[in-house]
Inverse folding.
């Protein structure tokens, strides 16, 4: 997956505290290593990226080392197994309970 690191995102925050915590919460695993292909450094931050060469302009969070996170506006190849979590908090941690898809459809099947 080819992505580009987005500049000027350091002051953004979400309910999770850090973007690395945000990634871990929605990926459901602990961030171990930098998501950049063949980088063996530890994951230190959650980096904001966009996919390159597609129609998907959404921003995503991936774990990265600080060195790679500092390389903004540069094309980066991610390791193929890395999970990309949406940076848009309205579809992740900013979601209210009423928008939760899990509760509704279970009770209407009585007849
Ligand atoms: Zn969050
Ligand atoms: Zn790295």
């Amino acid at each position: 997956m080819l992505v580009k690191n987005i500049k000027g995102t350091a002051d953004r925050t979400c309910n999770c505290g850090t973007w690395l915590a945000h990634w871990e919460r929605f990926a459901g695993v602990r961030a171990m290593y930098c998501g950049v292909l063949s980088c063996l450094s530890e994951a230190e931050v959650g980096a904001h990226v966009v996919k390159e060469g597609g129609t998907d302009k959404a921003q995503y969070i991936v774990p990265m080392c600080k060195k790679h996170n500092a390389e903004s506006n540069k094309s980066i190849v991610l390791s193929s197994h890395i999970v990309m979590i949406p940076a848009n908090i309205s579809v992740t941690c900013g979601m209210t309970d009423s928008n939760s898809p899990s509760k509704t459809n279970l009770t209407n099947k009585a007849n």
